[in-house]
Amino acid sequence: MTFTGQAYALGAGTVINAIATWKGAAFGVDLKTFADVELTKESSSFIGTIEGVPQGDTTLIERSMELVLEHFGIEMGGTVVTRSEVPLASGLKSSSAAANATILATLDALGETLEPLDAVNMGVRAAKDAGVTITGAFDDACASFFGGIVVTDNRKNELVKRTEKEMDVVIFAPDRQSFSSQTNVHNSELLAPWVDMAYDLALEGEYEKAMTLNGFLYCGALGFSTDIMMEALKCGVKGVSLSGTGPAYSALVDRKMADTLTKVWGDLGTSGKVINTKINNDGLTKP
Ligand SMILES: Nc1ncnc2c1ncn2[C@@H]1O[C@H](COP(=O)(O)OP(=O)(O)OP(=O)(O)O)[C@@H](O)[C@H]1O
Ligand SMILES: O=C(O)C1=C[C@@H](O)[C@@H](O)[C@H](O)C1
Which residues belong to any copy of the GHMP kinase N-terminal domain (predicted)? Predict the structure, then answer.
């Protein structure tokens, strides 16, 4: 007998990368990762597949499934298949989306529920166990789960603030990957006094100023070009940043600016794709 479950979770963009100070902020976007889970008592192993990425590391989604079963004390094995609109390891929180979607799909297969923050914390634990994160990325996990803009303390796994905003999001995603686990933590930590200033701006609700400051700081620390950000500022954009540990950049804009920036970034001739989406304020459920 098999038990099947499906779920999705959101990708996200960065306001504050938490690696310098363990305090972060992020917003959920309208790009989804879907997970299909199949559980059976006939097996005790967990096998994950990332559709279209045969060489992808499936430890995170296998561990996510395992943690749900452990929590309920159920002895089963199974498979999980993810497919994603979120480019993998680009800074757009593909890992948080994959963990959240897998946990919810496993709950769906079992006919069980968890409190939203317990599900988020389980995904953070899976990410730490799989070695794909530095701080646990509780900020990204909350943005992926609840949508809107979230401000968090990743050391305490505390959701400090959540706001909803109707804004478009324009993303420039280069055709390459940058894994959080291999990012330059030492350089990021050198930024702490200035990242604190950006975090305070985020707490005051000045998300666009906060993210632009974050972007220039982390481009400097991680060796990414600021050209893409400068092109956005020349158009009049106020909020633009390197997202996560890169290489993608995202901007918070109104509808009219979204069209302008999509064209400007698309015409740059830098290899990569421009994605026009928006903040997803619905999330999967409210905190
Ligand atoms: N769709 C997916 N299915 C299964 N695992 C995934 C998926 N997407 C990402 N992952 C896992 O997450 C890892 C990438 O995590 P990483 O934190 O480097 O990327 P990210 O979350 O997109 O970036 P950032 O944290 O900077 O936003 C992959 O190596 C893989 O293990
Ligand atoms: O691995 C991590 O701890 C993180 C990675 C990036 O996505 C950051 O944006 C996030 O704030 C923390």
Answer: 60-148
Residue-wise pLDDT for 75-99, tens only, equals: 999 999 999 999 888 999 999 999 9
Residue closest via CA to ligand 2's atom 6 equals 244
- If you measure from the C-alpha of residue 27 to the centroid of ligand 1, how many angstroms do you get, rounded to a whole number? 17
User: Nearest bound ligand to CA 138?
Assistant: 2
Read off the amino acid at residue 30: D
Residues 241-287 pLDDT 10s: 999 999 999 999 999 999 999 999 999 988 899 999 999 999 986 54
CA-57 nearest atom, ligand 1:
31
Of the listed ligands, the closest to the CA of 9 is 1
User: Do residues 104 and 33 touch, judged by C-beta distance below 8 A?
Assistant: no
Tell me the CB-side half-sphere exposure of residue 268, using CA atoms within 13 A.
20
In the chain, the domains with their CATH numbers are: 2-162 (3.30.230.10), 165-278 (3.30.70.890)
Report residue 144 as tokens.
């992926």
- Cross-strand partners of 169: 252, 277
- Please give the model's pTM, rounded to 2 decimal places: 0.97
Within 8 A by CB and 6+ apart from 132, the residues are 57, 59, 60, 95, 179, 180, 181
